[in-house]
Amino acid sequence: MSEASPRRPVSEGKGVKTSEISKPFIPSELARPSNLQKIQQRKLQVKNYPRIKKLEKIGVYSSCKELQDDNCKCNGWKNAQSTSNSGENQTSSQQLTTTVTLQDPCRACNHPLSTHVKHLDAAKDDEINRLLSMIVDVENLVVCVQKEEDTDTKQVYFYLYRLLRKCTLQTSRPVIEGPLGSPPFSQPSIGKAVTNFIIYKFGHLPQKEFQIMHELAKTFIYCLNQETLETPSTRTSRGQADDFNEYKMNYTRWLCYCRVPKFCESLVHHATVDVFGRPLLKSIFPLLRRRILDDFRSDKFHVPPDKRTLILSHFPKFLSMLEEELNASNSPIWDVDFSQMPAHMPLPSPRSNDSLSPGTPGSFPSLFSMTSPMGSLQTPIAVTPSGKRRADSGTQSSDDAKRARSSMQSDNDNTQQDFSLEVINEVVNMITDPAQMLGPEAANLSSQSARDEAARQEERQGLIEFHVVANCANASRQILTWLVEIQNVFARQLPRMPRDYIARLVFDTRHRTLALVKEGRVIGGICFRMFPSQRFTEIVFCAVTSNEQVKGYGTHLMNHLKEYHIKQSMYHFLTYADEYAIGYFKKQGFSKEIKVPRSGYVGYIKDYEGATLMGCELNPRIPYTEFSNIIRKQKEIVKKLIEKKQQQISQVMPGLTCFKDGVRQIPIESIPGIMNTGWKPNSDGKRKEIVESVESLFAPLKAIVQSMR
Amino acid sequence: MTFVECENRVQELLSELHDIIKDTQKQREEGNNNLETIGKTHEKMQGEAKLSTYFKQKLRNLYSVALDDADVECDLLKKGLDIIAKIKALQEEKRIAARLSSYNPLDDQPRKSMRRGVLMSMLQKSAQTLPLWIGKPNEKVPPLCGAVSAGPDYIAKPGDKVAARVRTDEAEEQWILAEVVSFNSSLQKYEVDDIDEEGREHHVLSKRRVVPLAQWKANPETDPEALFPKGALVMALYPQTTCFYRAVISKQPTTAHEDYSVLFEDNSYADGYSPALRVAQKYLVVPKEMREL
């Protein structure tokens, strides 16, 4: 027999109290706080044993090292004196210390206990305690194996039991091997995606509302980490059988990496939200959603009433929106590269500095940290005044630092030093304070400002408005007036288009028009037709009345159109541009390279002779109407940070004197300070390579210059 | 004057202006006291049946003080306006100098061109800040104020904005907004630059092809005769462009800050005219040949 039968350790183990077992006992419940506490107590108790008692305990799980007897095969010392005792009553340690010595023979192989624990002669207390802790885990797993009714789960417990048993024998550390793979199992993790989600969906909200969403996200993450997954067979019995194998795999991973390690510390614990991604969340979401809401309705977490109302009123919508992103095929929140620096948030507000830190799973936040079922302390949902949080501590600022890094990462690893939050805030404040940056003339349009800045300001002041309008059976008088006006603008500005043709398309019910309204009159617009089945939109007409041109309205119109389409999840524009329009479309990000397959648009889009087909692919993460502003600010920030850095690191070296002394040549790396600049000596091979590549570049570059002349 | 001297001079003038504005406010408050006394005196007089000599004398004194106050305040304001004009002149000088220095034919660096949108907003701003003519009572408005054209002998200075009739690539005649570079008195020809940096071409034009733009706004409240009358035919700068087109005045401005409403001749409209568009006083001219019509 190479493995101990799971029955025997139990007869000696005391991992779980009988009273607990007598209740309907679900092994995974061991992860509940009350049980975790008991396990900790038990471990502490074992740790406080005298050494001999510890050795005995370990001996039970250690093979005999007796070599003379043709390598004794006995794999665990058995106390000869307590032959039939189940061990349940041996809770008193004194009783045992008196009875056991290292010389006591094993009931099975007759070798003394000392031969079983020989490998521990030189072992430090730490190591012995680690083994003991593992043994407690083994004993708990035995109970799990015995009590578990679900076959799949039982198998996993058994596998983990055997793994830990093997590790106690070999005094090694447990490593889960095999087809499960190692965490993380999917990227981005659920935790990351949920953070992305709130930035993506709620990043534009005012601080207070955003804070609520942030709390909801943290609550969700907390709940998911606590969630006991449904066994594959229960799930199948509910009729969810489609992805049985995938779910079973994830369920097994969850047991091995998330659930069991919670009560078996010998295994490395991972938070569910850190190691799993979209596939798992997708498979458990409907049930999870129900359970979370039920838990709050039944007040399982003992949340104070006002917070409970807040959660119950916001959570359903929050979860529905999250579910939508979960199922949407091109949701950006599942993009590994999603930037947590939310582009459409006003960068300088302190809000972006603190409230956006990814909810660190595991360390659970204000809502619950103090309101576990055992405690009754209450912390309010923290709508912390901004700024205050910044000052507080470790986790927060490290998150910020992470974010800062992501936005200005360099491949220079060790020398890369992050800017402290204070520095970044200072810079951000500097660039937002117009007096400091531009002087009193900031309000005027300068040559520095973006093409659409004036239009953006006018929209903010309410001088211009944007409306998407279309003809339909019950169109209002206002909409019809606007349509007539926009048709007139198109007719005037596009003299080569027949008037009736323009009228027909503008009033066609499948065409829509984004109208620019100033002082109650339409002064420009873009007529477009969406082809949802083909995933693209055709730009049909686009014009601004002549006396309102060169004011950035055209750019602002197109940016509004882009944002309108992102809301509808349409990411492609196509248009036939005439020779005068090509310049405009180029400025708006269109190119002659078409990303939509030809078969997708031929026969759909109106083809004009002599016109050029141009296309534009939208990026749903760009807030187009604020884009130029954001880029400008980012540029300023980076510039200021570079200046700061340069001030910090600038260093003056005394200069070389060796040449005066007659030295002709010194190795470059011996010049003081040069290595600090990151300079690396070039090997000869490299230099040769450069020379070769320069030579090979000469001909093509010359050809380019020639063709440009 | 070097660039730095110029900057320093501007700073000096600005602080002078600052003082004058403060003085003006003080003067105005003092004047108000007197005006209030006048008001009160009139109230008291209401009760009396006959105008007594006492009140007569008192009022005479009060009014003469009030007139003096108003004169002092007026002088202060004029001083302030003079300083503003000086600052503008200095800045113009600086701009022309900068322009000349960048005007080096050997310099093959690409000219830093301004985006059209920026140019347009600058043109608008310069029209808004065109100084308002403030004359003495019964003083005749000078040439180049509002609709009053310059005399036949007037020569525009370098840097002045003009409407210039040029021949385009399509061999058509067009009136464009331009800036005077120089005037050759022997040839009686102007050298002008197109204001539009994109097509910044150099033109040498005879005097009759160049019409200087107004240098003062006319105040409709005090000098209505210096405005183009309704229905007058003019050349007007089409909004958001740098070209002048024929237009008819449809509405005069009623305040110094208002623009004209004009109808541009446009065949694409059924009645031959565009809808009313607003054009600043600065950008309306009447070339000689149009006047003769």
From TrEMBL, chain A:
This entry's Enzyme Commission designation comes to: 2.3.1.48
Taxonomic lineage: Eukaryota, Metazoa, Chordata, Tunicata, Ascidiacea
Full protein name? histone acetyltransferase
Stretches with biased composition (Polar residues): 350-360, 366-381, 406-418
Gene Ontology biological process terms from the UniProt entry: chromatin remodeling; positive regulation of transcription by RNA polymerase II
- Which family would the database say this protein is a member of? Belongs to the acetyltransferase family. GCN5 subfamily.
Query: Where is the protein situated, by its record's location annotation?
Result: Nucleus
Q: Which InterPro entries would you find in this protein's record?
A: Acyl_CoA_acyltransferase (IPR016181), GCN5 (IPR037800), GNAT_dom (IPR000182), PCAF_N (IPR009464)
Cited Gene3D superfamilies: 3.40.630.30
Region entry Disordered, spans: 1-34, 345-418
Q: Which GO terms describe its molecular function?
A: histone H3 acetyltransferase activity
- The lineage's top-level taxon is Eukaryota
Q: Where is the composition biased (Basic and acidic residues)?
A: 1-17
GO CC terms on record?
ATAC complex; nucleus
Q: Tell me which residues make up the N-acetyltransferase domain.
A: 470-619
| Primary location class | nucleus
Keyword annotations for this protein, in alphabetical order, are: Acyltransferase, Bromodomain, Nucleus, Transcription, Transcription regulation, Transferase
Q: Which organism is it from?
A: Ciona intestinalis (Transparent sea squirt)
State the SUPFAM superfamilies in the record: Acyl-CoA N-acyltransferases (Nat) (SSF55729)
Which PROSITE patterns does the record match to this protein?
Answer: GNAT
Automatic annotation (TrEMBL), chain B:
Query: In terms of domain of life, where is this protein from?
Result: Eukaryota
- Gene Ontology CC annotation, any one: SAGA complex
What are the BP-aspect GO terms? regulation of cell division
Provide the SGF29 C-terminal domain boundaries.
Answer: 152-293
One Pfam match? SGF29_Tudor
Q: Does the keyword Nuclease apply?
A: no
Q: Is Transcription tagged as a keyword?
A: yes
Instruction: Provide this UniProt record's keywords sorted from A to Z.
Output: Nucleus, Transcription, Transcription regulation
According to its UniProt record, where is this protein located? Answer: Nucleus
What InterPro entries does the entry give?
SGF29, SGF29_tudor-like_dom, Tudor_SGF29_rpt1, Tudor_SGF29_rpt2
Protein name (Swiss-Prot/TrEMBL):
SGF29 C-terminal domain-containing protein
